[in-house]
């Protein structure tokens, strides 16, 4: 009987290992306080990415902004709801045809190395940003010249209108570093800006802990709620969830799968959409998959996808099913398009037979760790149900985006950031858009794009709504849903989600009352 | 002695050269589109192309290889393509984390494995059976399962130890110890179990040697025979196993550093692999091979020192 | 009277059936075999017997509990049937593991055979490559390989197989080297067999068992590595291995922890079974009986009247052994008796010879007196008393090891057979002489050193200081035996037990050592038990003699009487052998050296 007890022991051990993991949700204690009640104290944020470079010319939006915001002021500041308010620039004004932007700067700001922030410094930074080949350099592609006309005035001249320029200047593009430090060449690891905090190198371990301490001479103490801000890059979602539940960090972005555990631990939850997820039909001209050239086929696929179920099972119900690629809160959003393509297998089959296509197959990429297995299986099954076979190809995460952008696939599932209409146009719709690798377009779309770029505010809005309606009808994409960002703070911390940004801005955090 | 060391070092350099060259060529032919990954999803193709030229990706294989080799020979492994940190700096910055975990685990494994292994070999009976069962269990349950259970119980459930992160030894000794305790336990369970098995069989082998019987016939106390003669005889085998364990752990920390969000060498390896950060990955491979070569040399020297036969020749 | 005990050796068949039978008798090994059998059958027939299409997703019914709608183990996060996926997953998991093992074998076996058989340059190059491969951390290499070659379970398992090949190489090489110069290979070579058929017929046969063990271990590690790679996100989600399933379980660990249980169990059970099987196989091989087909001996009184039972009352004997029985318990409750009903005595200043062939139980008798029988041995009966102290009492009680070690060295000393293996190679000869002197006699270190040097002189070593400082491997066999003799007599023992003290030595040295023994015996007036197979030695040295065969005393008495008028046929045969100058025929089957295996080294994951 010896053998039985041994085998049982092994089995029990394995089972115990897994049950213990399972029980953890209920056993978790509320996160502990770290003395951050009231003002002052330390705020520790778990970041989903590690900073690539503290050089603002290499700055990037989304998760990355929280690394730059403590040390750099930006030209404009975006309030949580997206409203632009003064920061380094006290005023900004376009000329009549929106091709020249004049910024008026504060005259009382010094960098933490003691040098003065002036128009020349801003020019240096903007020029570096657009020529430095950073991740977001293309956002300033329309800028033809930056001029410092006097110590506090900067004039930005554009080749063509750019409706998103002001937003950009309130985001990654607007961070201003000390020109002296730029000359020094060590900005990538030793940031020198004029921001509310400075990076304390002695308490910083690259890739693990970035400690920012209050800048004593800062011009706007209202932005210095905490004495210290610590950013901890934690790239694994489970580790992130463990960290906030065990009280190691005060705030963190989690995922639908880790949400219940954090909620159960009594943490404060914030939900806000920033992305949409669904299928992108790149090959709308039918170069690789001729069937996709037919709008009926693309519509059929839209009907064939069971969006609500995917949202419920893959997104754990945290989000909103939709059929349009433009986000709520943007000018292009149209409530009536939300359910333009309800799940309807019969209709899908009818459309396919109308289009006269038999069974066909599409090759799409999948990435271990990025594609939820349920998602891949669900899409595959939904399409198989209407006679379309998906051949999945396993792609390394590092090759995924470039394989899309280089047009290696006729279609793919993706999760895309939802910016302003102009941002979205340049992302997925315009002939030269990043995610339009086959450069497909049609006359109507071209006209509407021009209207968005050059029209008055009202014209822009109308054109944005029209383009949205048109590409939904034409089924350029098959959106599934807008997943919620699932952000948590512990009970001693509050924050406010930032419109069109993956994580809240640093300025939005405060101790709970 | 000196010539032995010199010969081993030369062999180590050859190993280093072969392994790093192979890795370089393998990575060269991989299709990872690194420029796109550096710039992110919103960059244009033109930007990506520019970045590729910036990184020298348009250069032919051998020109890149000799550039790298030239740099490496002068101790310059270049700069990370992703976070612009010098490779040497980021590796050296992460070594303390990994070495803290691995070295402490090795010490623990050495001590506990000797205790258990000797106990099992000498006492046999239930101690031996227990060791067998634990060893089988430890080798059957994947390390990451153990780690996840540990986090769940001790960090999240009992909140005794931190779930993530690393505190440098120089900052705070207590914090350092707390930050590496769970990873060490996860790593040590398997290491102790399998090392103890090896120690056990080595001790049993030595115990059955004729000279042990002869020593007993001389009236020496069993304790003295065990600790002085048997352990000394079993030590080379034990050391060799520990060195293999050490090498295994350098790989094992990859998983643990991921689970515990530790900024170590393993995590750097994983990250540079997933990103395609070739300079960093090459640097990590070179450093790990150097560590391994040095450890093996030290073990060989120790074995030689323990074994008079090898010492003379 | 004498039975011909020699039997034609059939080691191959005997070992094979024996190992397998022993494996089946080992409950752990049997369980592991059964589990692996089930897993392999699942791997073969899984796709056929799976109740559902393992890839058929049904999101509406995702994460259903076990038993819902005919889903035995429920559904996963995509609504696929977990049980079917487990069945089908067994196939890809096992195939991937087998791929690693096959690659390791394909590389390790041929290179190991060539390196072991031919040696030379090929051997050094191959061994160097092996060392390189062994010094690479597997996971790091797999990371680099996945960056370079892509993410497929087949690619990573091929690379892993290469990384595991050194284990196969080393085992093969070591085994081949061990048998290469064995007689039967030489015989085969002389018989004109080609190299290929020698390798095929003889050498492959020898390495087969250790390779099976290593293969089992590699398969286990390979499955664990697959799971680890999946966990790191470097796997191939499109091949439904258990690792893929486990990874999916971890994604949903908070919502549906049970999803991780099934693949976790499957992986742990399979990996565990591979490990257990490897261990059980090794145990089965190592337990292979050293003496095959030894005739069981009945514990009956000896039929020869020549043996007189020693009168226990005669306590004035220095040593008396009475009706001693020694046996080794076997699996299944039987006991193999190696010494049965042996009685004799030794007086102070007397030399008793115990003569017999190897395996006759004479050494076991000697070890019984010293209390140095192996742990597995059992005293079955009888008594031993030394100078009135009961070492083994008639009730079967043995004197405690503590009390025994007070006697050993000080009053009872021992000279072993093989000089080189009886000195600890890690300590100087001086240390090994001095230490007992200080521990047993309580001498100071300086006194002990002086005494040791004196002893070395006494045993006829010309440069005692040099020998004192030397390590055992630095002296010759004869000199080592002198050292052992010096050690044995160093504490002025009353009884000296010499187990074939001259067998391992050259003929000329033999005579010198015998002279030395005689001389020392006289000088210290010791009682001596001289165990030997050689009547010549007996004639030279002994006063009385005991002849043993198959664990029993055949005949005993005064040396002269027995030499002149042996009563037993067996004694005559032995004597005849001596007179013809031959070693006595061996009644024992050739025993193969028990293969020594490297225990599995678990590669860190």
UniProtKB/TrEMBL annotation, chain A:
**PROSITE patterns membership:** PROKAR_LIPOPROTEIN
Q: Give the signal peptide as a residue range, or say none if absent.
A: 1-22
User: By its UniProt entry, which InterPro entries does this protein fall under?
Assistant: Peptide/Ni-bd, SBP_5, SBP_5_dom
The answer on whether this UniProt entry bears the keyword Secreted reads no
Q: Which Pfam families match?
A: SBP_bac_5
Recorded hits in Gene3D superfamilies, A to Z, give: Dipeptide-binding Protein, Domain 3 (3.10.105.10), Periplasmic binding protein-like II (3.40.190.10)
Domain named Solute-binding protein family: which ranges? 83-421
Say if the entry is tagged with keyword NAD.
Answer: no
Record keywords, A-Z = Signal
Per the record, the coiled-coil ranges are: none
The name under which this protein is listed is Solute-binding protein family 5 domain-containing protein
TrEMBL record, chain B:
Q: What is this protein called?
A: ABC transporter permease
Q: Which UniProt keywords apply?
A: Cell membrane, Membrane, Transmembrane, Transmembrane helix, Transport
Q: Where in the cell is it found?
A: Cell membrane
Family recorded in the similarity comment: Belongs to the binding-protein-dependent transport system permease family.
Q: Which residues form the ABC transmembrane type-1 domain?
A: 95-299
Sections of the chain in a coiled coil: none
SUPFAM superfamilies named among the record's database cross-references: MetI-like
Please name the InterPro entries in this protein's record. BPD_transp_1_N, MetI-like, MetI-like_sf
Please give the start and end residues of each transmembrane region. Answer: 9-29, 99-122, 134-161, 173-193, 237-260, 280-306
Q: How does it sit in the membrane?
A: Multi-pass membrane protein
Signal peptide stretch = none
TrEMBL record, chain C:
Q: Which InterPro entries match?
A: AAA+_ATPase, ABC_Ni/Peptide_Import, ABC_transporter-like_ATP-bd, ABC_transporter-like_CS, MetI-like, MetI-like_sf, OppC_N, P-loop_NTPase
Q: Where are the transmembrane segments?
A: 28-50, 94-118, 125-147, 153-171, 211-234, 254-277
User: Domain ABC transporter, which positions?
Assistant: 307-575
Keyword field contains Transmembrane helix: yes
What membrane topology does the annotation report for this chain? Multi-pass membrane protein; Peripheral membrane protein
What Pfam families does its record include?
Answer: ABC_tran, BPD_transp_1, OppC_N
Return the Gene3D superfamilies for the record. MetI-like, P-loop containing nucleotide triphosphate hydrolases
**From the record, what ranges are coiled-coil?**
none
Query: What region holds the ABC transmembrane type-1 domain?
Result: 90-278
Q: Which UniProt keywords apply?
A: ATP-binding, Cell membrane, Membrane, Nucleotide-binding, Transmembrane, Transmembrane helix, Transport
Q: Where in or outside the cell is it found? A: Cell membrane; Membrane
In which family does this protein belong, per the annotation?
Answer: Belongs to the ABC transporter superfamily.
* Name assigned to this protein: ABC transporter
